[in-house]
Amino acid sequence: MATVPIIGGTGALGFGLALRLAAAGEHVVVGSRDIGRANEAVSRLREVLPQASAEAAVNEEAATRGDVVLLCVPFRAQSENLTRLKPVLQPGQVLVDATVPLAAAFSGKATRLLGVPQGSAAEQAAEMVPDGVDVVSAFHTVSADRLRRLDEQLDEDVLIAGDRRAARRRVAELVLRIDGLRPVDCGPLEMARMIEGLTPLLISINRRYRTHAGVRITGLPEDAAGHWAD
User: The CATH number of the domain where 221 resides is what?
Assistant: First the structure.
């Protein structure tokens, strides 16, 4: 059993990942700026999964509890959270950045990406973490709504980008713990610029079809999971 800290675990994506990972037998640490909200989220999780191994913590404490830390906060809160986490993140940890620099849609206009000087939210995160902490981009195209519905079978890919293959592999191993998700190696972190751009595209598609479509890469080897073996 691994311990998986989720920064922003009270939000839609963070809570959905907490549910799926807890259902897979992982120990999840639900992080929040407010310990009360974190405790409330753990209570909701246990209503669905009474035997779940889960605990609540403030974000700074949560980030110390596992080797792979999930950052699932809105982009507007990314910088603030990383500033608070910098003193507690340690060399050797992997920070999984799932944030997307989205501008809110108004008056029926399409959701769009905000410009980020570094090129992507993940690359901005990489500039803010301490030396020795690897940033990996992942989980941008997985529907939070579908994650929360444990009775719904997942069947989609998680696109993973990061500058070190070993770090990408560690995230892939976590993805494989969630039934129905397949990790796809997209290469270096700069690929996050394109991966993050898929989120507003999917939002637009899902609005029109009233669904929760994901991404599936065709043409990969049948045993694509073997790619991650040493």
Answer: 3.40.50.720
Task: Identify the CA nearest to 177 among candidates 67, 24, 29.
Answer: 24
Residue 171 makes CB contacts below 8 A (sequence gap 6+) with 68, 94, 96, 136, 138, 160, 162, 183
Question: Based on C-alpha coordinates, what's the Rg of the chain?
Answer: 16
Helices (H) and strands (E) in the chain, counts: 8, 10
| 3-state class (DSSP) for residue 173 | helix
Percent of the chain scoring above 70 in pLDDT: 94
pTM: 0.93
Spatial CA neighbour of 100 closest among 80, 78, 84:
78
Domain span at residue 209 reads 3-228
CA distance 216 to 68: 24
pLDDT per residue as tens digits for the range 66-75: 999 999 999 9
pLDDT in tens, 162-192: 999 999 999 999 999 999 999 999 999 999 9
User: Please, what's the b/e burial string for 142-169 (b: 16 or more CB within 10 A of its CB; e: otherwise)?
Assistant: bbbebbbebeeebebbbbbbbeeeebbb
3-state secondary structure of 145: helix
When divided into structural domains, the chain yields a total of: 1
